[in-house]
């Protein structure tokens, strides 16, 4: 059996972590023969709750768990980790805009960037889930200069999964039959869920999903707004933010990094922009990427029409504004 890898999950006493830990510990993310030592970080007032999570992990009797390290100390949490799920943050409450969260959360990701820089393996792959995820990932990477910027990604996989499920339902096919839906930009209500380049397999043949839906008004209107505001809709119904689906998406995202993407398929994630597709450089922008040997590459050459252009510019503008606000907070 392989040597265990150290994996940190922050916000480990929270609701997303509660679903995520089980997926990681049973081999869904790093593979069924990859043992893990789980580093669980939360804040001091949550140590009692975290102890309960540790008890439950033990009671799961999962053979891939080769150790559990619960802690409130970032230096302990990030020591020698090869993968980091940065989930811990102040969650959005009903009626709260993501921007309200920015200043509180950016400070957390500055501190964690510094701790990663000092204590993690230089090859560590960092997935930022805590909101505002894109800008938190940017801040985190800035404070971890010894770790390649490419190793920091932000989660838009939940948005991708939501869009994929929506189109599958619309077309009356299984969710696995819809591929290559794209999320462009920010994990926020300005994101652009794009079906133009997606495919659907129906009746044994693969065709363009946009043409198969055959309803431009829906795809440019209700579909886009439904995906953009799905998080708020879940909060309104559940009185808590998405957790099971967010954890599933976090597992999917890290699995894509660890195990690569299938031929002909891409996934969306927030990565440091190089200015591809004319979007602003040096913000963490969600692009379609392929992944090989744990390295992502932005899918190039997709035709962008005027509608997509305006949506992509809008969400890019929001990321520039968030970056300016975040860097101002960090300098205080
Ligand atoms: P939660 O409130 O249940 O758990 C958050 C946990 O983080 C708490 O236990 C809290 O004590 C902990 N925490 C706070 N500050 C910390 C710090 N400095 N270090 C370590 N832990 C810390 O929240 P939940 O539902 O688990 O959500 C976590 C984050 O994920 C929120 O920011 C939420 O907005 C975000 N989210 C992101 C999604 C995405 O698609 N990118 C989707 C859904 C949620």
From TrEMBL:
It catalyses: (S)-malate + NAD(+) = oxaloacetate + NADH + H(+). The keyword NAD applies. The active site is at residue 187. Residues 156-327 form the Lactate/malate dehydrogenase C-terminal domain. Substrate binds at residues 92, 98, 131, 162. One of its GO terms (molecular function) is L-malate dehydrogenase (NAD+) activity. InterPro entries: L-lactate/malate_DH, Lactate/malate_DH_C, Lactate/malate_DH_N, Lactate_DH/Glyco_Ohase_4_C, Malate_DH_AS, Malate_DH_NAD-dep_euk, Malate_DH_type2, NAD(P)-bd_dom_sf. The keyword NAD applies. It is an enzyme of class 1 (oxidoreductase). Residues 6-152 form the Lactate/malate dehydrogenase N-terminal domain. GO terms for biological process: malate metabolic process; tricarboxylic acid cycle. Its EC number is 1.1.1.37. Belongs to the LDH/MDH superfamily. MDH type 2 family. HAMAP family: Malate_dehydrog_2. This is Malate dehydrogenase. It comes from Thrips palmi. The gene is LOC117653017.
